[in-house]
Write a structure and sequence with these properties.
The protein has 530 residues and is of the alpha/beta class. 45% of the residues lie in helices and 13% in strands. The model has no long low-confidence stretch (mean pLDDT 92).
């Protein structure tokens, strides 16, 4: 069997970072972990080709080669995924579709012509698909009757990737989250009882990636990395040992809840394992909105104190916020700005509330008559950064959109962005090596020498530094501020200089995204007046 594994193009989003990705010589940010996991579940004698349409183009030759086409994608890829199904069917191919989008909205996939639908998680649904194909069936919908035990999940087929296309790779150590935030689809997709891979499985995946020659950044894309402290400590203990033995070839980013800030010992264990950044679901400082959305864990301690503990103990922070939630009051946008500035968070993702299909929020709005179901199939907002108009918000949409635009305009005004980034990295403790040196200690020697960056990568990083130094330090009105802060960081906290520069470089993409948000918001405001 010749199988074509297709990943649809991603529309522009917060996580695209196209300028920095391309400046580093890559095609796109990350590969599709979902498809290479599915590939590992298929028979070993099948011939597989992975085509990530974010990094390469389809050809008539590839279409002609395939006996079977398998497509996976998220709701944000909705329009491009549907177009791929239609093209594949137009070429006479049998099409299998899986992933979060088909799991949430299977009827749209069937209408587009999908033959086989794989709902939920692949570990227990793919065997049902393989059985149907062996029986000669021509279509069907498959979903396992229980959530799979991740201790049986195979090592993803990282060998199918062209590693040079990507800025970072990803792994997953668990699925599910014990929290039940109303707007989140994690519980719908993966359940409230987190399931875990064993530490030996995680190390086996890292060893596979290491042997393929990858060096650099990895995202641990768990829904909530710290959902079980027992699990995460066991993973970190083995990861630290393995990483030291390989010369620390990888740095790690992950997703966590804000209560990480209440466990300094865990933060220390993460930095010892070479974690450098966490993506935090902060969402809103509005107390009533947190209560209504069941985000109770964000009310246990001061948000600002939690953020400052995470920063002070060595982790970078990327924040996630939502505007337009039920329970927030006018001026919520100003209070989000105030929190971002007070906590000095350099990069934050601000979203407008968007009901994801079949979440608890979706069903509540449906019961309240606030979900405009006649607009959903035509709603481009489901797969873009646009302004959702398929439900009735709790306060005037024009008010929310105006605040949303103001937050973007404010936090990514170049001078404020650079100043905030500078404050953040000045407030981080120096690296472990510097702290040990100050105490007159030496860190335990690694079993292997530190992994050296290839000369090509070093030259590429130098060119990136020159590129954004030109953008921010020569042609921009921020030029004096840029050089003053660069020298200040080199003098006051030199071990954090590289992290500081990397975040400054991210600003170029954030400024572009701010301009795109402005166009979307002004378009909606214009429609409202006409």
């Amino acid at each position: 069997m010749k199988v074509l594994l297709l990943y649809p193009p991603m529309p522009r989003s917060f996580f695209s970072f196209p300028k920095l990705v391309h400046a580093m010589g890559h095609k796109t940010l990350m590969p599709p972990l979902s498809l290479i996991t599915v590939a590992a579940l298929l028979p070993r004698d099948w011939q597989l080709r992975l085509v990530d349409l974010n990094a390469e183009a389809m050809t008539d030759q590839l279409w002609g080669w395939a006996d079977l086409v398998m497509i996976s994608g998220m709701i944000i890829q909705r329009q491009n995924l549907l177009a791929l199904i239609r093209e594949a069917k137009g070429r006479g191919k049998t099409v299998v579709v899986g992933g979060p989008y088909v799991t949430s909205l299977p009827e749209e996939i069937l209408q587009a012509g999908g033959d086989f639908l794989v709902l939920g998680e692949g570990e227990n649904a793919i065997p049902l698909l393989l059985e149907a194909l062996a029986q000669g069936r021509r279509g069907g919908v498959f979903k396992g009757d229980s959530r799979p035990d991740l201790t049986t999940s195979p090592i993803p087929r990282f060998d199918l990737l062209n590693l040079r296309n990507y800025s970072k790779l990803s792994i997953q150590t668990s699925r599910g989250c014990p929290h039940d935030c109303e707007f989140c689809d994690v519980v719908q997709l993966f359940g409230r009882r987190p399931r875990y891979k064993e530490p030996r499985q995680v190390i086996a995946e890292l060893e596979t990636i290491f042997r393929l020659g990858w060096r650099g950044h990895l995202l641990v894309c768990d829904d909530n990395f710290i959902a079980s402290k027992t699990h995460v400590r066991a993973i970190l203990q083995e990861l630290t040992r393995w990483s030291k033995g390989r010369g620390e070839p990888f740095t790690f980013t992950t997703q966590a809840t804000l209560d990480l800030g209440q466990d300094v010992a865990l933060i220390d264990q993460m930095t010892a394992a070479n974690f450098v950044e966490v993506f935090l679901g902060i969402e809103t400082p509005e107390e009533e909105a947190l209560i209504r959305s069941h985000k109770h864990h964000n009310r246990r301690a001061s948000m600002q104190d939690s953020i400052q503990r995470i920063r002070a103990n060595g982790l970078n922070i990327m924040g996630s916020f939502i505007l337009g939630m039920d329970g927030e009051k006018p001026g919520a946008g100003e209070r989000i700005i105030a929190l971002i500035e007070a906590a000095s968070i350099p990069i934050s993702m601000l979203n407008l509330l968007q009901p994801i299909p079949h979440t608890r929020l979706w069903h509540r709005l449906q019961r309240e008559g606030r979900l405009l179901e006649d607009r959903i199939q035509k709603a481009p907002e489901l797969d873009s950064i646009g302004v959702p108009q398929f439900f009735i918000p709790s306060r005037p949409r024009e008010q929310i959109v105006a605040e949303y635009l103001k937050v973007w305009e404010t936090i990514y005004e170049p001078q404020r962005f650079l100043e905030r980034t500078y404050r953040f990295f000045l407030g981080k403790r120096p690296t472990r090596a510097v702290l040990a040196q100050r105490r007159g200690e030496t860190l335990p020697p690694a079993a292997a020498p530190p992994a050296k960056k290839p000369l090509r990568r070093q030259l590429r990083e130098l060119s990136v530094f020159l590129w954004f130094s030109w953008q921010l330090g020569i042609v921009s009105s921020t030029r004096w501020q840029y050089w003053r802060q660069l020298l200040g960081m080199a003098r006051k906290n030199p071990s954090r200089l590289l992290g500081y520069l990397t975040h400054c470089a991210l600003g170029a993409d954030m400024f572009d995204l701010r301009d795109l948000i402005r166009q979307c918001c002004l378009g909606v405001q214009k429609q409202g007046k006409s």
